[in-house]
Amino acid sequence: MRRISLWAGLALAVAVMTGCPPTYPKCNNDEQCQEKGEVCVQGQCQECATDANCREGFTCQANKCAPKPPECTTDTACGTGRICEAGKCAEAQCKDDSACNGGKCQAGRCQAPKDTCSASTDCGEGQECQSGKCVTADASSKCDYSPVPFGFNESTLDSSAQSRLGELAACIKASQGKITLGGHADERGTEEYNLQLSNRRAAAVKRYLVDLGVPGNRLSTVGYGETRPVSSAATEEGWSENRRVEFQR
């Protein structure tokens, strides 16, 4: 019995002398903070002690990793012959216009000529993109105003119709005047239903053109139902010709 008490007392003495591991966030060394991905700083587990404890692009501030401030925010901070790009100082893109392929060198950067373009949307009102240059559009004479076809009982635009309207929108914006969108349906179905369907088709075309930037006040819609067929043939080919939206100028 005395021998057991002696060993228990000895174990207690060793524990007191060596001490138990401190409870997080207290610490004696970095190993006790590793589980949290931290380091021991003055007896406390912290996110960092120096910049080396932070990932690239971050710096240690008040024992917390914070994004490094940008090297620059303006060209002035970078000195002569250098410019500020994405928060870092870099060599200027140009010294004079000769390095800009027809553009202008302004404050160390190449500026494209105002009349260059990659698409008509890059050009101003009344212009279109031709061979990389913005030129005055010969508006309505080049617009494809052929009817937009629809599937049976459909009032949504398929990919082919969307592509055509995408081209037509730029042409309409470059021209003048108002356009009436006339919706039509084939003879199948009731007269009332076909009238509603033709109105929905006209509205779908207008909505798509407006989304592409055509002013809504230049477009009006009307539904004719089945009353104005272009084909009298009671065949699929004839019916498909009658399912359409026409552009009336």
Automatic annotation (TrEMBL):
Q: Which domain of life is it from?
A: Bacteria
Instruction: Choose one Gene Ontology CC annotation of this protein and give it.
Output: cell outer membrane
Q: Where in the cell is it found?
A: Cell outer membrane
Signal as UniProt keyword: yes
Which InterPro entries does its entry note? Answer: Bact_OuterMem_StrucFunc, Myxo_Cys_rpt, OMP_bac, OmpA-like, OmpA-like_sf
Transmembrane spans: none
Keyword Membrane assigned = yes
Ranges of biased composition (kind: Basic and acidic residues):
240-249
Give the region (Disordered) as residue ranges. 224-249
* Keyword vocabulary terms for this entry: Cell outer membrane, Membrane, Signal
Q: What range does the record give for the signal peptide?
A: 1-25
Concerning PANTHER family, the annotation shows: LIPOPROTEIN YIAD-RELATED, STATOR ELEMENT OF FLAGELLAR MOTOR COMPLEX
* Protein name as annotated: OmpA family protein
